[in-house]
Design goal:
alpha/beta; about 30% helix; eight-stranded parallel beta sheet; 22 strands; about 550 residues; disordered N terminus; single chain
Amino acid sequence: MLLTLARSLAAVSALALAAPALSDTLIDNVDGVTIDAEGKVRRFNGLVFDDEGKVTAVLGRGDKRPQVDYRLDGEGRVMLPGMIDAHVHVMDMGFAALTLDLSGTTSLEDALAKIKTFAEENPGRPWIIGRGWNQEKWGLGRFPTAAELDAVVSDRPVWLERADNHAQWANTLAIQTAGITAKTPDPAGGKIIRDAKGNPAGVFVDNAIQLVAKVVPAPRPEDRDLALAKAQDVLLAKGVTAVADMGTKPADWTAFRRAGDQGRLQVRIMSYADSVETLELMAGPEPTGWLYDDRLRMGGIKLFLDGALGSRGASLKEPYADDHGTRGLPLLSPSQLRNLMSRAAMDNFQTAVHAIGDAANAEVLAAIEELSESYKGDRRWRIEHTQIVDPVDIARFGQHGVIASMQPLHQTSDRLMAEARLGPDRLAGAYPWRSVIKVGGRLAFGSDAPVEPADPWAGMAAAISRTDAKGEPFGGWFPQEAVSREQALAGFTADAAYAGFAEGRFGRLLPGERADFILVDRDPLFASPEALRETKILQVWIGGVKVRGE
């Protein structure tokens, strides 16, 4: 009798362990779209996740609904994985939203008026800090000058970042505060724009930026906390639930950790350190574990090999078409690049190398080929931007698991400038999205925010059409490089997660992954480019918790 009772109790216990805990949530009646483990589109109409915020079931129309504690009606709305931006600068986004924003200015006069107004409205600020200017959008034909800034603000230093993060504009007081004169030499990998007498004219390119930046007051910890909060608001408003932060500084990492410790970190951050020293200081001898329920990890390093097209810092194989005296500004020698990549790879850190010009991209690809002989396994070498590639080099993206981390909005913003910088005969490998896929490479899509808006919907629209918000140029710019809607969605979800070694954790709505999803008002796989740009975010959920929406 006792033996029979014991066996019965054991059987009941076994059934209890095998049965799912009644703490799951089912969101039913949705028009769900995700990317499955094979990279194919999967449709579903019900999603179940547990109290740890992980997906336990993806249900089709014919699937039996499980018994759960919480059942929500999706009201037929479109459910997608949370968007992932594969290349942003988180703290820069936050500070850009809190300081002077010149990104919408259309002329030098417009910019100067905004600078003057901002200075008058902020009399207590010791420096006037801002970003977003672009002399190409102004039709200026040259860089702006310190004298032009002096005319509107002369009582305080002014320090303004160009839209591409590769040049800064200073007034005379900022230049004097930094002690820069006509005798100050250009640093390696940098350029001081000078007047006819050799004096600093007001703009500093690439490595020359540090000549002034070193005297700019650093933000306080509370400033950084506020900037992080603002950046998260900006991302969540567009349905972005995870990002790759490119160039994380020690102060940034500690701000992320403070937010995680205090429960304020919502967006998932795949962090790429700004230097080997930061890796050693913040991560240690190997990539960190995933912290705060998969919300933070430092797994790689961001390296800069060249500058940007706008400031003629991108490294080209041939001289610039609109300035035959330069081929750009290489920021690392070939041996320096290989040494840094090797040093990171020895400790299993991933490398992400900024390369915009065709010479820079060729150099990174060559380095990857050489280092792959020593560093085997799944390295997922990343090239950030990959904007101008010599067609003869494109096939190399299909080797050694190279990931092209590209930003579709750069193509629409930079189109006319790229034509001017390169000329018509050197554009065949410009922003080669489809060509990279054809040769077996992987794409990861992002925005480079705050250089471009952190808007994956505008990014997808550009990716499938090669046109801007006005629908220009008609038919698309080199339309053969457009990607399919499915590829664009994968680039901002599953493939962006893969690029950061996050697959299996988030990026796809599959069992075992985090329940990061959004409800939107239209299906991106059927929307026109114009309609995609107007996508409305109805709800945002991260780890099974609603963080935005009604």
